[in-house]
Amino acid sequence: MGEGHDQTNPYSPYAFEAANKHYANQIHVPDPIVGARSRVGIITCCDARCIPERFFNLSENEAFVIRNGGGRTASEDVIRTILLVSVLSEIKELKVIHHTDCGSLAFSDEWIRETVARNDPLLPGGPFKSDALPWAEAISTQPFHMRPGDTERDRIERSVRQDVQYLKSHPLVKPATLITGWVYDLHTGLVEKCD
Ligand SMILES: [Zn+2]
Question: Known SUPFAM superfamilies for this protein (predicted)?
Fold first, then answer.
């Protein structure tokens, strides 16, 4: 599988440094105290359309956010990050939020490994280094598994429930922490509870 996202946005440069200077000069207010005030952490996808600071209207120091491909929780780095936060500050809730039209729905580990193995020089952005394949083989991309008759929504909700369960059962996530699961609908902008 690799279908589902045949098109990507056309390249369009963005003036990052100019935008930051405007932010620093016009918007930024220094906040010397660490610790998200809501005591809520969000684990979600790195998709550029899935921005919790936007869809929850968060300001600085409101919540901490962990983003990775798919917003999956079963990774050492997600647990490492939760651990770091939870020794500094209370975490009242962790929200697992996956989203519709996620790129992780469109590929399998096998497809990614085959792509790296084939290493077409015409890959977007050029080929990988010649020794890339063993590294790709060592990584699980945690694809959203398909079952017969599944809708996209079924697959997203199942992955959310798996990730909620993973956090609930992990010894490094404190039992007092509420773990909740959500789906962010890119079309409506709504974040809907799903467990
Ligand atoms: Zn995604």
Answer: beta-carbonic anhydrase, cab
- Residue 194 identity (one-letter amino acid): C
How far does residue 47's CA lie from ligand 1's centre (Å)?
A: 5
Of 41, 20, 5, 21, the residue nearest 180 (C-alpha)? 41
Give me the residue spans of the domains in the chain.
Answer: 37-107+143-193
Per-residue pLDDT of 143-178, as tens digits, reads 888 888 999 999 999 999 999 999 999 999 999 999
Topology (CATH level 3) of domain 37-107+143-193: Beta-carbonic Anhydrase; Chain A (3.40.1050)
**100-112 pLDDT per residue, tens:** 999 888 888 899 9
Does the annotation place 195 within a ligand binding site?
A: no
pTM for this prediction: 0.93
Among candidates 78, 108, 104, which has minimal Cα distance to 91? 78
Ligand 1 centre and the CA of 73: distance in Å?
Answer: 13
In angstroms, the CA 4 to CA 23 distance is 36
Bridge-based pairing of strands 191-193 and 178-184 is antiparallel
| Residue type (1 letter), 40 | V
> 105 CA to middle of ligand 1, Å?
8
* Residue 46 marked in a binding site: no
Q: Do residues 104 and 174 lie in contact, with contact meaning Cβ atoms separated by under 8 Å?
A: no
Compute, in angstroms, the gap from residue 179 CA to the centroid of ligand 1. 20
